[in-house]
Every structure is written in C-alpha cells, then in structure tokens.
Amino acid sequence: MEANNNALPNSGANTTLALINLDDLRQIFKEFIGNIKKELGVEEESCKAESNPTINQVAEIFHVTRGTLTRWHNRSILKNYEIGGRRRYKMSEVNALLKGGRV
Q: What's the pTM?
C-alpha cells in the first residue's frame, strides 16, 4: 500500500480496495482507534486493565504506614480487596484519592 493513506478516505471518491495485506490492515485499524481515542479524549492509561497495587506500594505512594492504610480501610477512606488471596487496592480508587476526591 504505497499510496498516501490519508488522501484516500478524504478524497470523497467511492473506492473499493480489492487487496490489502494484513500488516497494512492492522496499521489502519491502529491509527483509526488512536484517532477515535483522541477525539473522545480517552487517555491511553485509562484503556489499560485495572492494576492492583499491594499494601506496601500504596503506602509508598501516599507516604504513610501500613497502619494508616488499615485505618483508612476501616473508615472507608480507601478500601482494600482480597485478590488472589492477598490484600490489594484498586488503582482507580488510589488515583481518585490522590486527586483529592473521596473514593
């Protein structure tokens, strides 16, 4: 696909593509999705799966002790969850608290 990819969809012509290789098709979809994300204002990070930091990681983020995190959990300031048999936090909730909001 040697032609200018941007000129074809903007030309207004009713064009039919008979052959396109798989790598070009993947690139077209990647660019298309990237453009849609930009138009919608979706940040790349928000499209990723939720991460679940450990108690120690969250303590480092907030510069507090594990005991403080336990108190926050008990007061429903920042809840932790059992995930895979271990206590973890939802990064979306950590970010909300960092931005000054309540979870």
A: 0.51
